[in-house]
Design brief:
alpha/beta, Alkaline Phosphatase, subunit A, 2 domains, nine-stranded mixed β-sheet, two-stranded antiparallel ribbon, 30% helix
Length: 489
């Protein structure tokens, strides 16, 4: 399938009719006087917002939306979901060369004279009817063992954070490609014309690897498809509120006059219809609607006490991971198609037992509560919830191995994720690693395979959602990727 490229396949840099410049400049200046409205560069020269370019799905989709909990830094699979008793038995001994097989290491451990194996400090148990093996670090998630599918055999080529995070979000290690949420918005459009189709929530006050806006950007797609970041505080979206002296009625009147002015120019016959001006006006209208819809969506005052208790005490504190999980449920209820949560701080090169314990304390209860809450409301059956990072951690210790302290370097050759919700095979574990959690033993899942499977659940053929740029058709899965049928119910 070749998608339309008449306006989507090019970047508009100006207007075709010089006679329109005066009116265009007037409208631009008029709009900027409203406080730049919302959505940053999505007020650029882009086609008017409407349905996605696909005009529907390629097949019947199992899900309508995705909530992606991305834990940047590389959570250790060995401490969380990939139980390795043999590794614990060999604790302190050298990583066998027969396991490493000459594979490259990062510069942080490549010069170490010794690579001592480090078993996990934490106990594992089997939970649920499916027997998913889960660490003691995530007791709340363990209670949902039959709702989640653990993937132990993820792998990537990227070994450092920047390329690895970019790869997981955009399907490429190189900046400049559209993010997964942008691709979905481009293909399918929005379910709620009063809210963005793609929303980003970042845990406030967390250190760790930087999270740049290009990770939820639109790349070479029109900029209106980029994710809209919600922030804590009184203004969840920057520049959305009216400037001083302009109330809602005045704003409505200005937009009405703006529309009348555009329509009058078209009726006069002196100026050709300009889709760029129509697009700008449509974005002003969207921002006007968002002035009411976003405050309502982010207002937790109607939530009962038992919901806050379920998500944890931090859920009353806007911008925390727990509050973002609760907000994700509210956005899902209101038809937001792709909700991306970022929680940094998982880059544990040292101090791992204490560090990962704190990270799980911040995330486990709220992550499980989100799945439980969606399920109770009947939303989980058409929502896919994903949890994971950009790569895994090494089975050997970075630096000195101490009795109660160790760290792990980056490890791209195998790592774990989990997914829950519509179309997924809950209560199962897919893929296996070797006894050292160093190499994949069976059923590898590449990033492109994961992306292809997610799009498949949305009803999209990943080979047919494309965009022509610089002379060729691009897609989220680049030039390969397979739907992993065994992950699907």
């Amino acid at each position: 399938m070749t998608l339309p490229t008449s306006t989507a396949g090019r970047v508009c840099t100006g207007f075709d009719h010089p006679a329109q410049l005066t009116r265009q400049q007037f409208l631009k200046n008029f709009g900027m006087g409203l406080g730049a409205l919302a959505l940053s560069s999505s007020l650029g020269d882009q086609p008017a917002r409407g349905d996605g370019v696909l005009g529907g799905t390629h097949r019947s989709g199992r899900i309508k939306r995705v909530i992606y909990m991305f834990n940047s830094g590389g959570p250790s699979q060995i401490e969380l979901f990939d139980h390795k008793p043999e590794l614990k038995r060999l604790h302190g001994t050298e990583l066998p060369e027969s396991v490493r097989k000459g594979q490259r290491l990062t510069t942080m451990t490549g010069s170490q004279s010794s690579l001592p194996l480090a078993g996990s400090s934490f106990a594992f148990k089997r939970y649920g009817d499916g027997g998913n093996e889960i660490s003691e670090l995530t007791p709340h998630l363990a209670g949902l063992a039959d709702d989640i599918c653990i993937i132990r055999s993820m792998h990537t080529e990227a070994i450092n954070h920047g390329p690895a995070v970019t790869y997981m979000q955009t399907g490429s290690q190189f900046p400049g490609r559209p993010s997964m949420g942008a691709w979905m918005d481009y293909g399918l459009g929005t379910e709620n014309s009063n809210l963005p189709a793609f929303v980003v929530l970042v845990t406030k006050g967390k250190g760790g690897q930087p999270l740049l806006s290009r990770l939820w950007g639109s790349g070479f797609l029109p900029s209106r498809y980029q994710g809209v970041r919600f922030r804590s505080g009184k203004d969840p979206v920057l520049y959305l509120t009216n400037p001083n002296g302009v109330d809602a009625s005045a704003r409505r009147l200005m937009l009405d006059r703006l529309r009348e002015l555009q329509q009058a120019g078209g009726r006069s016959g002196k100026q050709a219809s300009d889709p760029l001006l129509e697009a700008r006006i449509a974005q002003y209208e969207l921002a006007f609607r968002m002035q009411r819809s976003i405050p309502e969506a982010t207002d937790f005052s109607s939530e009962p006490k038992h919901i806050f208790d379920e998500y944890g005490k931090d859920s009353k504190n806007p911008g925390t991971y727990a509050a973002n999980c609760l907000l994700a449920r509210r956005l899902a209820e209101r038809g937001v198609r792709f909700i991306q949560l970022y929680h940094p701080g998982w880059d544990q090169h040292g101090g791992l037992p204490g560090g990962i314990r704190n990270q799980c304390r911040e995330t486990d209860q709220a992550s499980a509560a989100l799945v439980t809450d969606l399920k109770r409301r009947g939303l989980l059956e058409d929502t896919l919830v994903i949890w994971g990072g950009e790569f895994g951690r090494t089975s050997y210790c970075q630096g000195k191995l101490a009795p109660n302290n160790y760290g792990r370097d980056h490890h791209p050759r195998c790592f774990s994720m989990w997914m829950a919700g519509g179309g997924g095979r809950g209560g199962t574990t897919y893929g296996q690693t070797d006894p050292f959690s160093y190499n994949i033993a069976e059923n590898p899942v590449h990033i492109h395979d994961l992306h292809a499977t997610i799009l498949h659940l949305m009803g999209i053929d990943h080979e047919r959602l494309t965009f022509r740029y610089q002379g060729r058709q691009f897609r989220l899965t680049d030039v390969h990727g397979n739907v992993i049928q065994d992950l699907l119910a």
